[in-house]
Write a structure and sequence with these properties.
heterodimer; A: 95 residues; alpha+beta; Histidine-containing Protein, Chain: A; four-stranded antiparallel β-sheet; 3 helices; 4 strands; 31% helix; disordered C terminus; B: 153 residues; alpha/beta; Mannitol-specific EII, Chain A; six-stranded mixed β-sheet; 20% strand
């Protein structure tokens, strides 16, 4: 199952607008997508398509997250989520 | 978290009456409960912080839950209020479902991340279906406090 570790660049972390952009993007793909804190190697990953689950992570600016995808276009989904998390707020689609 | 549930969420901040069905009215309704306990020094500025946060992106997080929140100098201590809507409130949640369980978090503006800690702890507990069921079944504010106290790590 493809996985990657990404540093969260947006100032708000994985909250508010970056979080909703993240969840919205995750819902555009058909594969199973999970996210969790990278430091928490054995930690459970949560459903990246659920705003409640993503909010529960409490991921801040500069934290590293682990993304895992399984299914159709898993790599494409990871690319899209990685790009989103690597882009400072202000350059995203909502601006 | 560094707070007990009764400090964070005293029974006066929990209502099991039916809240207004419209989102902003429901936000004002919860804010009124916090204001009535004397915890809000400036209701208008607290409201404007909450509304501004909603405009950025909805705090409807799906699974029938909304968690409007703000960091504001209008409060001196972190507070969490709760109401339950049987009608459901349209929070424009991404899953398209109305919010039935609504928590409001207000924290002072002291530069810490405590509002995010409270938000993530609360969200983590609400991921569990039995916690949501417990809140739907609660008959008194004490029941609500007990469900949350048990769920929060």
């Amino acid at each position: 199952m493809p996985e990657r570790v990404v540093t969260v660049v947006p100032e708000a972390g994985l909250h508010a607008r970056p979080a909703s952009a993240f969840v919205r993007t995750a819902n555009e793909y058909d594969c199973d997508l999970r996210v969790g804190a990278a430091e928490d190697a054995d930690g459970d990953l949560v459903d990246a398509r659920s705003m409640l689950a993503v909010t529960s992570l409490g991921v801040g600016h500069g934290d590293r997250v682990r993304l895992a995808a399984d299914g159709a276009d898993a790599d494409g989904a990871l690319d899209a989520l990685e790009e989103l998390l690597s882009t400072p707020e202000g350059n995203d689609e909502d601006q | 978290m560094d707070y007990t549930i009764t400090e964070l969420m005293p029974s006066g901040l929990i209502t099991l009456e039916e809240p207004p069905a419209e989102k902003t009215d429901a936000i004002e309704y919860l804010l009124d409960h916090i204001t009535e306990t004397g915890r809000v020094t400036d209701r208008e500025s607290a409201l404007s912080a909450l509304v501004q946060r909603e405009q950025e992106t909805t705090t409807g997080v799906g699974k029938g839950i909304a968690i409007p929140h703000a960091q504001t100098s209008a409060v001196d201590q972190p507070s969490v209020a709760f109401c339950r809507s049987s009608a459901g409130i349209d929070f424009q949640s991404m899953d398209g479902k109305p919010a039935h369980l609504v928590f409001m978090i207000l924290v002072p503006e002291n530069g810490s991340d405590e509002h995010l800690e409270i938000l993530s702890s609360l969200s983590r507990s609400l991921l569990h279906e039995e916690v949501r069921e417990g809140l739907y079944d609660a008959e008194t504010p004490t029941d609500v406090q007990a469900v949350i106290a048990e769920a929060i790590e």
